[in-house]
Specification:
With about 130 residues, the chain is of the alpha+beta class. Helix content is about 15%, strand content about 35%. It has helices at about 1-15, 95-100; strands spanning about 20-30, 35, 40-45, 65-75, 80-85, 110-120, 120-125. A 5-stranded mixed barrel has the order 1-2-3-5-4. Strands 6-7 form a two-stranded antiparallel ribbon. A hairpin with a 4-residue loop joins strand 4 (about 65-75) and strand 5. The N and C termini lie far apart (about 75 Å).
């Protein structure tokens, strides 16, 4: 029975393609990502592929047992690994922001600034790092 399950999973793995959208169920959550069962194959969504928004832990975005649509980013047949993305199915907020504000003059706070530290090297300093001159 175990061998048959392995063969079925291998066949399912071979049918997956980059860019394909699949439905799956979250079966495990770790601090580095989420594991999703997509029809007998377990794929992983790395934290960077969960959402465009900031979060502290994957459980801030999804929960164990959640059913969701994911996009297949990569299929490694040799290592039997599938990389998935939830973020790829969400609109890119930067593209929307750029479209909505094209040509606009915007005001905002500058939390950091770039400084030239040599002829070929730039560094970023954040506002909290500045000190008053002596």
């Amino acid at each position: 029975m175990g061998q048959r399950d392995d063969e079925t999973a291998r066949l399912r793995l071979e049918t997956l393609e980059r860019g394909q959208v699949a439905t799956g169920v979250i079966v495990d959550i770790k601090n580095f990502g989420v594991f999703v069962d997509i029809g007998g194959v377990i794929g992983m969504i790395n934290c960077a592929e969960l959402t465009w928004k900031h979060f502290d832990h994957p459980t801030d975005v999804v929960g164990l047992g959640d059913r969701l649509a994911v996009m297949v980013l990569d299929v490694d047949l040799d290592r039997e690994r599938v990389s998935l993305s939830l973020k790829a199915l969400q609109p890119d907020p930067m593209a929307e922001f750029a479209r909505a504000n094209l040509g606009a003059v915007l005001r905002g706070e500058v939390p950091a600034s770039c400084r030239s530290v040599s002829s070929s090297l730039w560094g970023m300093t954040f506002r909290g790092w500045f000190t008053s001159p002596p």
